Amino acid sequence: MLFGLTAAVVAGVISPILLPHAAHPSMVYHILLHIASITIVTFLSIISFLAYKRAGGTRTLFMTLGFMALGVVEVFYLFESSGIYVPLSIPTLDIEIPHVILLAMLTLFGLGFLKVNK
């Protein structure tokens, strides 16, 4: 039930981005893929946040922050694929911000997975 509610809210919020691209079938499928990813990430972020709120622990916190970072990256990629210009790079270093966030996400997942509870 929570997943259905999450999917409905995400689709309702993001559908204005999809509507201008309805005439281009290839872009619709690409954007739908990002919407599905955002829906799953939002659901997993909510579940992990509720688990952190209930049980606490730094491992759960790292996993929650990792899911949230993945959600931010997916929103950036959705904007990029739908043609909405968002400056996504650090010009002096020629590094894209989503790649930095993905590195942070992998670090958070690694910390959450490898952290030893004493």
Brief overview, please?
By secondary structure, this protein is mainly α. It has 4 helices and 2 strands, in the order αααββα.
Please characterize this protein's 3D structure.
- With 118 residues, the chain is mainly alpha-helical.
- It contains 4 helices and 2 strands.
- Strands 1-2 form a two-stranded antiparallel sheet.
- The mean pLDDT is 85.
Core attributes:
single chain, 118 residues, mainly alpha, two-stranded antiparallel sheet, 4 helices, 2 strands, 3% strand
Q: Structural class per helix/strand content? A: mainly alpha
Radius of gyration: 16 Å
Fraction of residues in H or I helices: over 70%
Instruction: Give the percentage of residues in beta strands.
Output: under 5%
Q: What's the total helix number?
A: 4
Mean pLDDT across all amino acids = 85
The order of strands across the largest sheet is 1-2
- The number of strands is 2
> Main β-sheet, in a few words?
2 strands, antiparallel
Euclidean distance between termini CA atoms: 36 Å
Overall, the morphology is flat
